[in-house]
Every structure is written in structure tokens, then in C-alpha cells.
């Protein structure tokens, strides 16, 4: 009996519910498991419950913004890749890719596949 490999978990963090929904649906269609958070604080709570394989995050959000989220996740010892999506271009960071908003879904999925080594 062949067991299928576990599906990778992608955490989507964005304060815009439409973006969470669109990305979530697209990534589920690509075969990923998806968790969603409305801001960095909620994302940190989800990471504490189950560490994702990759985080896709907006930068400018209420409570905890995307750059602080990355710092806190790294302080916890997690090294998963991150794809930032924003209208604002962040400084380069190791293990972090950037996709500008407005984005094309193909750009997001390509960045995720590259980050996970699935490309």
C-alpha cells in the first residue's frame, strides 16, 4: 500500500479577507493544505499550534505586521521560507521572497514552489 506524501501546510497572513480567500482557494487547488490569519498576531498563534512549511504574508497589517511576524517566527527557531506580498518593497532578507501587489496567482505559486524546492 502506497501512502501519499503529506501535503505541505501554507500559512496565509493578510488583513484583506478577499486575498486570503483567493490565495487559499488557489493553493488548495495546487494540492497544499492552507491555514489563514488576519494579522501577524493570529499567525503566531497558528504557528504555535502547527508549524507551517511556508508563510505567505502581507507586510502592512494591524497589530503585528509582516516584518515583525518574520522576526518573531525566527526568534522561535523556525526557518521556513516566507513569501511577502505588498505594495511596499521590503529590504532583502535571507529565506524571504517578495511578490508585489497587485499580483498574479502564477507569480505567487511560482514563488512558493521555488521556496519549497518544488519548482
**Class of secondary structure makeup:** alpha/beta
Question: Which radius of gyration do the C-alpha atoms yield?
Answer: 13 Å
Beta strand count: 5
CATH class: Alpha Beta
Query: How many domains comprise the coordinates?
Result: 1
Q: Helix content range of the residues, please?
A: 25-40%
Task: Describe the model.
This protein is of the alpha/beta class. It has a single domain, classed as Response regulator (Rossmann fold, 3-Layer(aba) Sandwich), CATH 3.40.50.2300. 38% of the residues lie in helices and 21% in strands. It is built from four helices and five strands. The protein has a five-stranded parallel β-sheet, sandwiched between helices. The chain is globular. The model has no long low-confidence stretch (mean pLDDT 89).
List the helices and strands and how they pair.
Layout: E1 9-13, H1 17-29, E2 33-37, H2 40-49, E3 54-58, H3 66-75, E4 82-86, E5 96-100, H4 105-116
Parallel strand pairs: 1-2, 1-3, 3-4, 4-5
